[in-house]
Amino acid sequence: MIDDDRIRPRLVLATTLLPDGEAGETALREALDAGDVASVLIDPADRQPGPFQDFAERLVPVIQAAGAAAIVAGDTRCAGRVRADGFHDPSGSVPALREAVGRFAPRLIVGASGFTTRHDALEAGECMPDYLFFGKLGADAAPEPLRRNLELAEWWASIVEIPCIVQGGSDLASLPAAVATRAEFIALSSAVFADLALAGERVRAAERLIDAAMEEAAA
């Protein structure tokens, strides 16, 4: 039986490793079909604005058709042009986040990352974003989540009502550490998309591991 006081975290997928074209789109569709994915962070991943817009334009309808939120990172124009559900500011700048919230909320989901201390996170929280992400897009190559991210997420989830996303590691076996933070969302990228052919299988495995961690915590 799951403790009613604990919220089961939902998955957030980041597209950092997805290639342009049919292969990336197919892997994402299979991942979305395989579990409870709340949203997808569409990462420029070094693409120039034009190619990034093309990339996002292909993915947004796939994400939305699966019932997830499509959130474009770093490019407000692209977010508007592709009719995304949200904008993610990865800059770690409180003024930039405040501006984004003022411009786009509540029409779009607005979230942010790049805040690596409690003080900075609290300042960001005063801007009233829809979420904070403790991690960095593309920085999940290590098997285990970064301890600083886990600690910030656990602290944040214990005192702040604004939801948070904690970045998971590249090894799904490390998911229990992310679940233990009580963050509302866990972001995965390399753990799912390092092998495109296994994307759906990896999401199903992630869901099983989250359920097991929740059951163990409630025991």
From TrEMBL:
Residues 22-192 form the Thiamine phosphate synthase/TenI domain. InterPro entries: Aldolase_TIM, ThiamineP_synth_sf, ThiamineP_synth_TenI. Its EC number is 2.5.1.3. Gene3D superfamilies: Aldolase class I (3.20.20.70). The keyword Transferase applies. This is Thiamine phosphate synthase. NCBIfam families: PRK06512.1. Keywords: Transferase. Pfam families: TMP-TENI (PF02581). GO terms for biological process: thiamine biosynthetic process. The keyword Kinase does not apply. Transmembrane segments: none annotated. It comes from the Bacteria. One of its GO terms (molecular function) is thiamine-phosphate diphosphorylase activity.
